[in-house]
Amino acid sequence: MVRLEHANLVVTDIEPTLSFLKTAFPHWRVRGSGKGDWSGKPRTWLHFGDDEFYIALSDNGEGAPRDLKGHRPGLAHLAFEVSNLDALKARMAAAGHEITNPGNPTEHRRNVYYIDGNTIEFEFVEYLSDDPAEKNRYD
Q: Would you identify the CATH topology of the domain 6-61+72-135?
């Protein structure tokens, strides 16, 4: 078995990303948190998720985030499959989060992108088919 267990994001301020994720995933919770030191710098960290997957956040980031329209190496976005894209979009709109890219819907997929308060881009995708040949079409 292989599966992604968590993603670890370094930010300058945990709260904007945590608030964003709480809106996107209201069933997730803070699994644990604490304070510590990373490479000689103090940090606060937390794990936000469910029993199977989580996002780790640390607040000891320095410098400007990667320009999402540029070509520098680094994280472009994290993508999550959701079962109801319309419900997610309604929650995000109610919390003041605006769609930054309407995605590229096909007959078997719908998706949208948002950027949180730490300039991290998130994609949300809803598949309209269970058939891998339809879900994973690239034409």
A: 2,3-Dihydroxybiphenyl 1,2-Dioxygenase; domain 1 (3.10.180)
List beta partners, residue 31: none
Q: Give me the residue spans of the domains in the chain.
A: 6-61+72-135
Q: How far apart are CA 103 and CA 124, in angstroms?
A: 9
Strand, coil or helix: what is 85? helix
Mean pLDDT (10-residue bins), the chain, 139 residues: 94 97 98 94 96 96 89 93 97 98 94 96 97 89
The CA distance from 24 to 20, in Å, is 6
Check: CB of residue 70 under 8 Å from CB of residue 119: no
Q: Tell whether the torsion through CA atoms of 129, 26, 12 and 102 is positive or negative.
A: positive
Residue identified by tokens 């000689």 is 40
* 3-state secondary structure (DSSP) of residue 117: coil
Query: Taking the complete model, does pTM exceed 0.90, yes or no?
Result: yes
Name residue, tokens 């997957």.
53
Q: What pairs with residue 46 in β-bridges?
A: 33, 57
Nearest C-alpha neighbor of 123 from the set 74, 81, 73, 72: 81
